[in-house]
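Tokens as discussed.
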């Protein structure tokens, strides 16, 4: 039983958000200093836009702080509630995969940690287990809400696959988006707002508030110019958290709208690679993910981030309207 379990929902939302936000905002500067002393600096891809090379050596793996703050806030407010256990388990599992990726990259002093097939195997296995578990819980089930068209029962296998795709898809989409200072953290905070309002489960709304506040609090050290990066441990965890919140809130389809910027970023990579192979070397974008296209078009980094925030906010409103329809 959590200390605040008997509080009204609004108070739990405030407590979860305040706790997670304060822990990350206050812990960010000392975490950045500690990681810098330990030599956990970010390695920059050789094919990244030229101005990114000046970010080499910026401390990374700040996502450990984000995940820890979400866990503390959730345990303080909703405790061992089954919805909380599921969301935290998903977040922690994908954080662990991301942490392994980060540690390999830091140890080998390169941008590449786990190979793509290794990372996808671990993510896919974890996602299938989480999806299968969720499909058998009465607070999730196998029904999926279809905007303007009622709902559909996918059955255990169908729902397991859908949930797994959400976990793997959004973990990697947030990871791809985490390429500019403050971009992924701010967009997660915006998208997470949706799950403080649409959740059928009060516990999901409370954890959603913790996710929002933790991501927003991280901007203290991650906004341009960033003093700390979240790393794969953070981006994988936050993507999985959004997917888990969508599952327990029965907003699986709406997540694609609420998280529309993440979808666009991932789609830009898929389209770029496919078009490059089909045409023998031609490109749709100057560079993918999408934010790099605008960088190479000459947009300043803070301007890209602000405009992506605006688009993310529009996606959030559109998603909430779809859920309410």
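Sequence:
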């Amino acid at each position: 039983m959590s200390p605040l379990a008997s509080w009204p929902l609004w108070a739990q939302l405030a407590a979860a958000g305040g706790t997670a936000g304060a822990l990350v905002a206050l812990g960010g500067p000392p975490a950045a200093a500690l990681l810098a002393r330990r030599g956990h600096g970010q390695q920059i891809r050789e094919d990244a836009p030229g101005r990114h090379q000046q970010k080499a050596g910026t401390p990374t793996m700040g996502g450990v702080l984000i995940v820890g703050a979400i866990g503390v806030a959730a345990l303080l407010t909703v405790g061992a509630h089954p919805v909380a256990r599921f969301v935290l388990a998903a977040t922690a599992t994908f954080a662990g995969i991301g942490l392994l990726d980060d540690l390999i990259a830091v140890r080998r002093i390169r941008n590449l940690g786990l190979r793509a097939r290794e990372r996808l195997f671990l993510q896919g296995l974890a996602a299938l287990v989480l999806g299968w578990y969720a499909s058998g819980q009465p607070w999730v089930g196998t029904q999926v809400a279809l905007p303007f068209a009622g709902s559909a029962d996918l059955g255990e296998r169908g729902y397991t696959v859908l949930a797994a795709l959400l976990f793997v898809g959004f973990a990697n989409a947030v990871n791809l988006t985490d390429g500019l200072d403050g971009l992924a953290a701010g967009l997660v905070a915006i998208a997470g707002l949706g799950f403080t309002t649409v959740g059928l489960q009060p516990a999901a709304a409370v954890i959603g508030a913790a996710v929002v506040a933790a991501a927003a609090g991280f901007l203290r050290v991650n906004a341009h110019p960033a003093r700390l990066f979240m790393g794969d441990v953070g981006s994988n965890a936050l993507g999985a958290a959004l997917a888990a919140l969508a599952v327990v809130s029965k907003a699986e389809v709406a997540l694609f709208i609420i998280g529309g910027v993440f979808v666009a970023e991932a789609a830009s990579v898929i389209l770029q690679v496919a078009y490059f192979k089909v045409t023998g070397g031609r490109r749709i974008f100057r560079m993918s993910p999408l934010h790099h296209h605008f960088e190479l078009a000459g947009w300043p980094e803070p301007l890209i981030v602000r405009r992506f925030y605006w688009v993310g906010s529009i996606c959030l409103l559109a998603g909430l309207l779809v859920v309410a329809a």
